[in-house]
Amino acid sequence: MKPLKLEMQAFGPYAGIEVIDFTQLQNRTMFVISGKTGAGKTSIFDGISFAIYGKASGEDRNGADLRSHFAKDDLPTEVSLEFQLRDKIYYIWRAPQQEKRKSRGDGYTIVNAKAEMYIVDGTGSRKLLAANVRETDEKIREIIQLDANQFRQILMIPQGDFRKLLTSDSKEKEIILQRLFHTQQYKKIEEKLKEKAGFLKGEVENGIDQRSRKLREIFTNGNDELEAALAEQTPSDTIILPMLEAITVEMKQTLVEIEKNIKIKQKDRDEAKRKVDEAESILNEMKSRDDLAKQKANLDEKKSLIEDKRKAVDLARRAANLEHQENICQRLKKDIDDLLGKKNKVEKELAFISKEITSAMEILKREEENKSKRESFHAEMTRLESLREEVLSFSKRKADLQRLEQEADNYRKLLEKGKLKAAEWVEAIEKHQSDLNGLRQLQDQNVVLMEENLRLAQMIDLLDQLTGSIVDRKSAKDRLDQQDKALNLAKARAQDASETLKHIEEKWYKGQAAILASKLAAGSPCPVCGSSEHPLPAHTVVGHISEEDLEAAKKDAQLIDEQLADVRQTWMIAKADVDLCEKTVFEKLEAVKKFLPDAQLDNASHLLVELQDKKAETSNQLRNNTNQTNKIPELDAKLTKLTRSLKDLNREMEETAEKERVTANEYAETKAAVQSFTHNLPEGVENIEQFDKRVTFLRVKIQQFDEALNKAQQACNRLNEQQAAQRMTLDNLKQDVEKVQNSLNVEREKFLSQLHQEGFAAYTEYAESKRDALWIQAAEEEIKAYGEEYRSINDRLKDYETRLKGVDRPDIEKLDEAFKEQENSLLAMNGQFSSLMMNIKKNEDVQSTVLSLNHQIKAIEKQYELIGHLADITRGQNTYKLTFERFVLASFLDDILTAANGRLLKMTSGRYQLLRKKERSKGNVQSGLELLVFDQYTGQERHVKTLSGGESFKAALSLALGLSDVVQEHAGGVSLETMFIDEGFGTLDPESLDQAIEALMEIQSSGRLVGIISHVPELKERIDARLEVLAGQSGSSTEFVFLS
């Protein structure tokens, strides 16, 4: 990532818009940022970091704290950065959450954080990549592949943070190196192996569970030994399977015996079934014989009914011969009834029409009498039409009169309002002028307050650093006190272990002497001194010490000595931290005393609170004053506007007064004309609307009279025509009735003659004998069916009586009971056979499944043996407690240290060299990526935390440069084209400073951009590009200065 242009607005000490164009550096790859304390040097790094991540470069500053106190309330805080990354140019813009003055009323409102990101093409056009904070953060993580903390440790090393990457633990370094070298694939290999091993282990356990469940399905056939084996928590297949085979053989032998018994029982059952079937057949025939006898008796009872129905059918057929003639008579009778009904209807309609004619004649007479009214209305309408033009002229003049009266009244009201408004504006102009004078006095006061506020901010920053250093020193001393106690305890334990070992060794030697003494013989030489005389041989001591006891004591003493060395190393680190903190505290105190000579360590916190309160009071007063003075342009504009408006108002009032005079004259003239017209118009007609209304009324009345007369005449004509037509219809109907009545009389005589011929004495007898054709057909079929059924039942009854003659009724219950007994016995045998057969099959299935599962389990166990072993090794269960990914990261770190040590040896004149700690850490702490330093002066390794401030800076700088080299060589996804360093060079002596500058100069050939914030004069002289930060009363500004 290489910055091209940084733009900050109302950010930190930059009140307005500050643009830093890094392209001005051209081919220069190193520059110094210089300026006074508090001018805003670190704010440049804050601006770059905030633009990319929405966070400042230091952990003690956040987005909301970065707003400039010099900025105007209506100017929002914004930062934008244009940067190049892997040959692509990006533009990012951010605004933090901040307060904004309300557009209406007093007070402030909160505006949420915003962000946008674009890619810039060759023409300078921007294409949107992200439109909000969340999308922008995700895009930054995607293209830069470092979070804010990693960025601060690798690319931008803030003030006081240059030791973090150097002294960070293995876990923190692992996260950074993962991002830089993309080693997530190795982590995935670990996880895949672990997942595969877990899966295989689960498959083995699942197979064993399946086998156990399958074994428990075995039918034991009452075998106690097998049941006991199956009752185990995990049944053993090697024990159970042989027992299962033996039981299966026994069950198959039993199955053969049962099958023989079933065949014998089936024969007995079949014979019993035959006897039952024979008895049931006889009983069925006897039942059929009895049923037929009952049916024959029922048919005998119905004989008389069938004979009556046969007679009724004969009468119905004779009555059917008369039906045609009867229908003719009935049709003629209906025709006569219809004609009489029509005749009555016509007579009623004639009577109604006569009444309607009388009423219509009366209406016609009344309408003819209205003729005089119609003529009167027509004469009035003619007269009104002649006056239309005069009415139109009168209406226009009257409307003009009303308009002129309204206009004159409006002009008078405008003049009254203008006078009131002019008085108000004169008063407002005087008040605004007074307020403006007061605000200009506050402007002068603000200059003094800003200078005081800047001075207080510098002192607070120094005191804040001092109090933080005091707290760090106390924490370091507390840790040193704890380490003192731990060291004393370790020393005491080491002393006790040493004395214990010495005591055990003495007892062991004495024991060895006693053993030798026990083997000495008088006159034989001593194997130790060679003497043949033994005046004082050693005696056996109580509590014999073995060689194993002695070795155990030595190992314990050695372990305690090693622990003492570890504690002493930790104590040295804590002691170095205390010394460093002491030095830092007194350096910070001296810096504070330049501003506050009375400052001491015991009153630093008190002074800090006092200054913070004083600064808050000054800032509050400054903010209040600024809020007031910001109103000056607005007040000035209002005053100018009011003065101009008052002048315009006076001119408008003069014009309005002239218009009012002209309008009043026109009104008087028009009023006189209206009064003259009023005498010529008819009463009740004063305007064209009233005139048109009266003419319309007259026209409608005349039309109504005409329509009513025509309607009455038409009604009389229509009714007379209807009366004549109905009289003609009535005459025709009377003739038709007489003609049809004659025909009916003739046909009735014919019907009576045929009635006597068919043998009916009277019409009633004929009517009772009438039946429809369907009834006759059904009755004849019923008579026929009865005869056929009677013959069939009688013949079958005689057949059954012949066959059953001399046959006794069988005992079916006894025979059926004998059959069921045989059937149940056979069912029991079949059930026993099926159950045994099923259990044999079940056991054979269990045996087959278990053998198949054993084969599968064995194959999976073979895979798990290899995969599980690999998974354990890659997860760190090895001698060095290193995971696969950390092993790869350690290799990358070794490459980084090789590159770093080339520079560190130069900067330390060959004294120091960085090493990776390869020994395991205590307990389960992750290790393998922590750093040690090898000191050529002492020939010993020690932790990097024991380095002094200047030594730490050189080591951290070498590590950062080495890291950059290795990452660039591997061409990974992370681009390290830029490095920013904030302070740290002030801790170096002149020789070390020269060495550090030379190391930085060497990397210029790689094209990387290095920016350094420093007050060291030598840096400014050696580096030809300088970004000057200039502080002022209204905020800071920047400019590039080039020496050549």
UniProtKB/TrEMBL annotation:
Family annotation (InterPro entries): P-loop_NTPase, Rad50/SbcC_AAA
Protein name in the entry: Nuclease SbcCD subunit C
Keywords of this entry: Coiled coil
Family: Belongs to the SMC family. SbcC subfamily.
Presence of the UniProt keyword Coiled coil in the record: yes
GO MF entry, a single one: ATP hydrolysis activity
Subunit note: Heterodimer of SbcC and SbcD.
Entry coiled-coil feature ranges: 255-356, 384-507, 601-666, 702-750, 776-863
Record keyword Ribonucleoprotein present: no
Gene Ontology biological-process entries: double-strand break repair
Organism expressing this protein natively: Siminovitchia acidinfaciens
Database matches in Pfam families: AAA_23, SbcC_Walker_B
Rad50/SbcC-type AAA domain sequence ranges: 5-210
SUPFAM superfamilies assigned to the protein according to its UniProt record, in alphabetical order: P-loop containing nucleoside triphosphate hydrolases
